[in-house]
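Hi all, posting the design record for the shared folder.

TITLE: backbone redesign
STEP: 1 of 1
STRUCTURE INPUT:
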């Protein structure tokens, strides 16, 4: 009985994939479900405009030239090259499920269902433009797009978001094409326009094009690991957070550091030097706002990342901060004290080393 139920579950899971393949007229699933081909999608424009897109300014017949989008061709489409990946491997259910006449508890069946769904539907990173605002300054006018980074199959209580304008996307596209010419050959990008840059239709089309553009870039392993691609998402936040911290605006800085943390977490770069700097910023701001428990947790996470490294410019400052915070909140500090003693014996006196806050302020963010 149990084996029959599991067979139906597996058949239902594979049926969704098969129907999607037949709808596309192909026997193999696409490697990257989000197409980067810039279709007009006119029928869906009204849905996007009334749903996820919101506008703070409406200039339907705007003829003024956008600052970063000078003369150019109409919004165009370029071809896309797609790869194909093999289907998901069959799930091995184990002896308990295959035993004749065996019975499974509801909890066990739900656990198998959860594991099978996880194996057949791996998590992906999605990019969604949630709003677009027309911004007018003294001598220029541009559209500011808000993009959420969403992990499919998981609910994010605090989403990671960025705001970028057309010129930011264009700069990223230009830098990546200079370095990854072959990989970028099949990546489409919305062209510049001479007129009607601020109409709802143009903004909706560009919003969808930017979603597809980022999804296609993220599907290419070499590009999604490149500094150009990663810094497009979180370098602006790091600079802003550092500037706010230097001026003593710790509450505003904390929110910016936290968003940079979420962006790096979703992009999978939690072991980089920029991520350690982000943890330093969070620890400093939490401490300045008298949130000592949160500051202690940030230091512990950083020290776990630094566990395998014999020396690092931030190791000493993190250890000193961790010892101080552990004493304040009543946590164990013996391990950090032992590591500090090892640093004293191996290098210069710790009194000569900068504090975590001094390291944070002096770190250049190029």
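Okay, here is what came back for every position:
SEQUENCE:
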């Amino acid at each position: 009985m149990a084996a029959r139920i599991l067979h139906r579950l597996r058949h239902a899971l594979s049926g969704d994939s098969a129907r999607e393949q037949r709808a596309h007229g192909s026997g193999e699933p696409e490697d990257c479900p989000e197409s980067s081909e810039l279709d007009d999608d006119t029928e869906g424009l009204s849905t996007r405009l009334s749903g996820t897109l919101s506008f703070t300014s409406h200039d339907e017949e705007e003829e003024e030239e956008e600052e970063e989008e000078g003369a150019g061709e109409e919004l165009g489409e370029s071809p896309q090259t797609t790869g194909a990946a093999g289907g998901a491997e069959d799930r091995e259910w184990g002896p308990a499920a295959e035993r004749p006449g065996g019975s499974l508890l509801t909890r066990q069946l739900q656990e198998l269902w959860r594991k099978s769904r996880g194996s057949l539907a791996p998590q992906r990173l999605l990019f969604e433009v949630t709003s677009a605002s027309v911004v007018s300054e003294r001598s220029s006018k541009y559209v500011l797009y808000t993009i959420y980074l969403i992990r499919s199959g998981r609910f994010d209580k605090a989403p990671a978001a960025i705001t970028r304008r057309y010129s930011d996307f264009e700069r990223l596209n230009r830098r990546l094409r200079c370095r990854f010419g072959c990989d970028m050959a099949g990546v489409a990008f919305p062209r510049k326009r001479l007129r009607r840059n601020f109409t709802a239709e143009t903004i909706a089309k560009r919003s969808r094009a930017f979603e597809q553009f980022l999804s296609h870039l993220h599907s290419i392993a070499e590009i999604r690991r490149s500094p150009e691609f990663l810094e497009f998402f979180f370098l602006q936040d790091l600079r802003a957070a550092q500037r706010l911290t230097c001026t003593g605006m710790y509450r505003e800085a904390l929110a910016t550091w936290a968003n940079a943390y979420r962006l790096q977490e979703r992009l999978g770069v939690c072991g980089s030097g920029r991520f350690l700097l982000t943890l330093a910023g969070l620890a400093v701001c939490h401490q300045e706002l008298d949130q000592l428990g949160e500051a202690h947790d940030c230091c512990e996470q950083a020290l776990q990342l630094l566990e395998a490294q014999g020396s690092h410019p931030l190791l000493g400052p993190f250890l000193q901060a961790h010892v101080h915070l552990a004493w304040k909140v009543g946590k164990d500090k013996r391990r950090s004290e032992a590591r500090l003693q090892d640093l004293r014996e191996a290098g210069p006196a710790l009194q000569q080393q900068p504090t975590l806050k001094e390291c944070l302020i002096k770190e250049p963010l190029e």
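COMMENT: The chain has 14 helices and three strands.
Let me know if anyone wants the other runs.
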